[in-house]
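Methods — Computational structure assignment.
A single polypeptide chain was analysed. Its primary sequence is given first, followed by the predicted tertiary structure written as structure tokens.
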Amino acid sequence: MALTKSVTADKIEVITNPNENGADVTSVQVRTATKVLEDGAVISQSYHRHVIHSGDDWSSEPSNVQAICNAVFGA
């Protein structure tokens, strides 16, 4: 019986909404899935969501999230 834990950014969305002044603001929403597996079968999972805005530091994000942030906000 081997237990393993997997944490991945499994959903990345680019969202544009108006701010309080009516100007469009773009943000990146990231859903992180944490799964506990027993012999390859998922026995538990949970999700966490966070938002990245222009000007935030995304250097500690996974490479796929960094690539999208760089494309959306510029490198």
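Note: The chain is about 15% helix and 60% strand.
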